[in-house]
Amino acid sequence: MRFSSTIFGLVLLLPIFAVPITGATAEVELLLKSGKSWDGGSFQYPSGDLEVSIFRIRLEEGQETSFHCHPIPTFGSLLKGTLEVKTGNGQTTVIDERQAAIEVTDTLHRGEAIAGPVEMLVFYAGARDLENSIPKGKAGCS
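Below the sequence we write its predicted structure tokens.
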């Protein structure tokens, strides 16, 4: 199914109410609106030739990502399951199905699928020639 960028933009920016779409209405639900990441940290958009990337990520129950960090604003919405996110310094948050989150920026962290498999959409607000995720130990991620 394809959505026009105009409709997609409206869906992301409007609070809960119907948006007319070719004679019908669509239900629009604001999932998250914040200027801070889940740990209370700030973020800012990169300069340069902006580039947005969207990924669908799946983890089986008990599977976890490796430790990594994001040098750019990163946002996600959990389509299925429950995800526990832990930072390198021990902070944790749990994101449940149908919840959205603003990821920590420049902070070492990893996610683990708990209580079943996880499927999520992750949005990276980056710039051309910038990495979306940097693995632990690589320059730019401490």
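Residues 1-30 form one domain.
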